[in-house]
Design a protein that fits this description.
Layout (H helix, E strand, L loop, with lengths): L5 H7 L5 E3 L10 E3 L3 H14 L2 E5 L5 H15 L3 H5 L8 E7 L4 E11 L2 H4 L10 H29 L19 E7 L5 H5 L1 E9 L5 E6 L5 E4 L5 E3 L7 E5 L1 H6 L9 E4 L6 E8 L6 E2 L17 E2 H9 L16
Parallel strand pairs: 2-3
Antiparallel strand pairs: 1-7, 3-11, 4-5, 5-6, 6-13, 7-12, 8-11, 8-13, 9-10, 9-12, 14-15
Helix pairs in contact: 2-6, 3-6
Bound molecules: the ligand C=C1C[C@]23C[C@@]1(O)CC[C@H]2[C@@]12CC[C@H](O)[C@@](C)(C(=O)O1)[C@H]2[C@@H]3C(=O)O, 2-oxoglutaric acid (AKG) and fe (ii) ion (FE2).
GO biological process, one term: coumarin biosynthetic process
EC number: 1.14.11.13
Keywords: Dioxygenase, Iron, Metal-binding, Oxidoreductase
Length: 332
């Protein structure tokens, strides 16, 4: 048995944030059956208004496609540290280990962050540790998930009665879209919980800056979302489903009708967790403004006008947990 002394906890793990352990499993995550399109679009809009988050089942994505990518990801993270480091440090793309972003954020996580923009995705020589099989599996997975996300955005615009067709879905999954893809690996962590009642943070609280993110993880717990009442809710893992989160850009495009969801990952001392997230972002020069067909008469934008490129730049100057939209709110 490995005994972890208090001293080790204080020295080796001092750079990582912790949070008070919660044992409650949240049972209120909205579940959307994608095979019933009429009901699905209503539920999606309701969920985006209330939680900025929902789980999609019967989504039609091949489990084999997902399993192959997961297995390639597991093999990648099992490589010797030196080998993985040859594809890093992430800046922002590439292999990263415990450092998140450029401004000193840390987490108990190692990851691979890739751009899905054709030119950047193909910059394989920069990432020598990524095998042909992993590139291929990631490419197939990204195409399938981007298509699913486009479908969800179509449903949202249909349900909200906004047009023209493709005004939302046309922004993601296109050649010019600035989307990215991330594989995260949370190693099992020292059992801090037993020692102190606190857990290590794998990925600190934040909102995603893009339009919508699509997350799939293996059957290991850890993802938490912040509810409107301010409490943290632990999302039960489900490796057969996809979790959709509203990002800051969609909050602006709906003029605050949808709220980007704060989320974080808390580590687990027993199971390692592998997650794969597709962040659907718009083209760099796209203006992020409320969709005019959604605005009621006399309604004003809550935000100053900005492009995705400006927002991204500002995001990369911020820390993970910052309220990034605050800088762009109109002062009343
Ligand atoms: C600390 C940071 C990491 C991040 C860029 C940032 O400066 C603030 C936003 C972070 C985030 C969160 C969602 C995604 O994981 C991500 C890729 C993104 O687009 O914004 C990360 C950025 C990152 O890890 O590079
Ligand atoms: O790994 C996860 O489950 C979530 C990570 C996340 O929120 C992110 O990478 O932006
Ligand atoms: Fe996130």
């Amino acid at each position: 048995m490995v005994v972890l002394s208090k001293k080790v906890v204080h020295t080796d793990l001092a750079n990582f944030q912790t949070c008070k352990s919660t044992t409650d499993i949240f049972t209120g995550v909205p579940v959307v059956d994608m095979s019933d399109a009429i009901t699905a679009k209503k539920l999606i809009v309701e969920a985006c208004r209330e939680f900025g988050f929902f789980k999609a089942v019967n989504h039609g994505i091949s489990p084999e496609l997902v399993a192959v990518l997961e297995s390639e990801a597991v093999d990648f993270f099992a490589l010797p540290q030196q080998e993985k480091d040859r594809s890093g440090p992430a800046s922002p793309f590439g292999y990263g280990n415990t450092r998140i972003g450029p401004n000193g954020d840390t987490g108990w996580v190692e990851y691979l962050l890739l751009s899905t923009r054709p030119g950047l995705m193909l910059h394989k020589p920069h990432f020598p540790a990524i095998s042909e099989n992993l590139w291929f599996a990631a490419g197939e997975y990204i195409s399938a998930v981007a298509k699913m996300l486009k479908g969800v955005l179509e449903m949202i615009s249909g349900e909200l009665g906004i047009g023209p067709r493709g005004c939302l879905s046309g922004l993601v999954g296109d050649e010019k879209s600035d989307s990215c893809f991330r594989l995260n690996h949370y190693r099992p962590c020292p059992n801090l919980e037993a020692l102190s009642g606190w857990n290590l943070i794998g990925f600190g609280e934040h909102t995603d800056p893009q339009i919508m993110s699509v997350l799939r993880s293996c059957n290991a717990p850890g993802l938490e979302i912040r509810l409107q009442n301010g409490s943290w809710a632990s999302v039960p893992s489900d490796q057969t489903s996809f979790f959709f989160s509203v990002g800051d850009s969609l909050q602006v495009m709906t003029n605050g009708r949808f709220k980007s969801v704060k989320h974080r990952v808390v580590t687990n001392c027993l199971k390692s967790r592998v997650s794969m997230i597709y962040f659907g972002g718009p083209p760099l020069d796209e203006k992020i403004v409320p969709l005019c067909s959604l605005m009621e008469e006399g309604e004003e934008s809550l935000y100053e006008e900005f492009t995705w490129s400006e927002y991204k730049k500002s995001a990369y100057n911020s820390n993970l947990g910052d309220d990034r939209l605050k800088l762009f709110e109109k002062i009343k």
